[in-house]
UniProtKB/TrEMBL annotation:
Residue ranges of every copy of the BAH domain listed in the record: 48-170
CDD domains, per the entry: BAH
Domain of life: Eukaryota
Protein name (record): Uncharacterized protein
PHD-type domain mapped to chain residues: 174-224
One Pfam family here: PHD
Keyword terms of this UniProt record: Metal-binding, Zinc, Zinc-finger
One GO MF term: zinc ion binding
Keyword Repeat: no
Gene3D superfamilies: 2.30.30.490, Zinc/RING finger domain, C3HC4 (zinc finger)
Length: 249
C-alpha cells in the first residue's frame, strides 16, 4: 500500500515545524473538517520505503533539517489526499529555549551539534519533506561508534515541551574532566594513560598543538605511579644487596 508521491508548497513544510516552546499539536486539531483519515503501514518517498517508528531527517529549508520519529502514515482526504505523516519531533540545540530552561551560555557549550532531545511535540508534515532515515543512539553507544556521520545523532535527555523541562535535568547528566561538565563529543578530550578518565586538555594545562605526543596521567594515577616507582626502586635495591651478599658468602 504505497502512498503516491506529491509535490507540496515548501512553505507548508516550514509552517508544520516547531520552534522552541510551541505547544503540542494533536491530530484532531489539525483535521480541517471531519473527513476520515486513511492510515497506511508504509510509504515510499523518492524510492525509499518508510515505516512507522522510523526516525527521519526532515527538510526545513535549503540549509537546515529537523529530526523526527514517524508515528503514523496517512492520507488526508480533506486535503485532496495529501500523503502525510504524524511525527514526534526531536529538538536540536537550535530548537531549544535555553532561557526557559535556565541554561547559561557557558553550559550550552556542552550540548553537541549532533545531540537531539526526544520531545512530546507532535505535528503532521507532508511526506515529501522527508529526506532520509537517520539513527538516534544513546550518548554511550555514540561514543563507541566509529562511523560518525550526518545521519547519526545521539541523545541523553528528553525534553518535555509542555513543562519545559529536561529529563534528566542538565545538572544530573554524566560529568567528565576536573571541570565536571557534561561530555560534548565535538570537544577535544585526552585520556589518562592508566585509568579511563577523560579531561579537556586546556583544563589540565595541555596546549592543543602537541596533544598526540602528550602522555597524560590524572592526579590519583600520578600518585599511584610514583608509589609504584618507589616500590620498584626499593625492590631493586634489595635484589642488589642480596647479590652483593651472595658474592661474599
Ligand atoms: Zn574540563
Ligand atoms: Zn588516571
Amino acid at each position: 500500500m504505497d502512498i503516491p508521491y506529491s509535490i507540496l508548497n515548501p512553505e507548508e513544510t516550514l509552517n508544520a515545524v516547531p520552534k522552541g516552546s510551541m505547544a503540542t499539536a494533536d491530530l484532531s486539531s489539525q483535521q480541517t473538517n471531519k473527513e476520515p483519515i486513511k492510515l497506511f503501514s508504509k510509504a515510499k518517498v523518492n524510492g525509499t520505503e518508510y515505516h512507522c517508528l522510523d526516525v527521519v531527517k526532515i527538510k526545513q529549508n535549503e540549509f537546515s533539517t529537523y529530526v523526527a520519529k514517524i508515528l503514523k502514515i496517512m492520507s488526508r482526504s480533506a486535503d485532496k489526499d495529501i500523503p502525510c505523516a504524524q511525527v514526534q519531533w526531536y529538538y536540536k540545540k537550535g530548537d531549544m529555549n535555553f532561557d526557559i530552561l535556565r541554561l547559561s551560555e557557558a553550559d550550552q557549550v556542552f550540548i553537541g551539534d549532533n545531540e537531539v532531545f526526544p520531545t512530546n511535540h507532535k505535528d503532521i508534515i507532508p511526506l515529501e519533506s522527508i529526506i532520509c532515515k537517520v539513527q538516534v543512539l544513546h550518548l554511550s553507544e555514540y561514543q563507541d561508534c566509529s562511523l560518525v556521520n550526518q545521519s547519526i545523532f545521539y541523545t541523553r535527555a528528553k525534553f518535555d515541551v509542555i513543562q519545559n523541562r529536561l529529563f534528566p535535568p542538565f545538572s544530573k547528566w554524566d560529568k567528565l574532566c576536573i571541570c565536571e561538565k557534561p561530555q560534548n563529543p565535538n570537544m577535544l578530550y585526552i585520556g589518562c594513560e592508566m585509568c579511563d578518565k577523560w579531561v579537556h586538555p586546556e583544563c589540565v594545562g595541555i596546549k592543543d598543538g602537541n596533544i598526540e605526543d602528550v602522555k597524560y596521567y590524572c592526579n590519583p594515577c600520578k600518585k599511584k605511579k610514583k608509589r609504584e616507582k618507589k616500590l620498584e626502586k626499593k625492590k631493586r635495591k634489595i635484589e642488589e644487596y642480596k647479590k652483593y651478599r651472595e658474592h661474599f658468602d
